[in-house]
Amino acid sequence: MTDRNKKLIWVHPCVDCGCDCDEVEDDHYHVSIELPGVKKNDIDLKVIKSGLRLRAKKNDDIEYVSELKFLCDAKPKEVKANYEDGLLTLDVPFDCLDPFKGANSVKID
Fold first, then answer.
1. How confident is the model at residue 41 (pLDDT cuts 50, 70, 90)?
2. Strand ranges across the sheet with 28-34
3. Which residue has the higher pLDDT, 14 or 94?
4. What CATH number labels 3-93?
């Protein structure tokens, strides 16, 4: 099968920026992406200050893809990644405090 005929499956990462309601400051994004049936060596993960891009080949016919834009600049050289049982987890340090601290709350009618 050629790349043109390859099925690309868009995967949505689960992201926790550590910005919780208790005003506890955290300086990392915690990202989880499910990649069932993918071998660790078939994952291509790139992280830049403004986001990440993932391509993970499951087999000759299927490839998982994802992109994520960060609210704050990340520290790409300090990213930690782990892959176990089809779950890729990332710890991505960033350079700013909670970007929503002090933001206006929107009244919902």
1. very high
2. 14-16, 28-34, 87-93, 80-84
3. 94
4. 2.60.40.790
CB atoms within 10 A of CB 58: 16
pTM, 2 dp: 0.75
Interacting residues of 100 by C-beta distance below 8 A, sequence separation 6+: 19
The rounded distance, in Å, linking the Cα atoms of 62 and 47 is 22
Q: How far apart are CA 56 and CA 103, in angstroms?
A: 36
CA 21 to each of CA 17, 65, 100: distance values in angstroms, whole numbers, following the listed order: 12, 31, 11
One-letter identity of residue 48? I
Q: Please report the pLDDT score of residue 16 as a whole number.
A: 59
User: Sheet containing 51-57: which strands, arranged edge to edge?
Assistant: 7-10, 62-69, 51-57, 43-48
What is the Cα–Cα distance from 95 to 97, expressed in whole angstroms? Answer: 7
| 85-91 mean pLDDT | 93
Distance (Å, whole) CA 109 – CA 103: 19
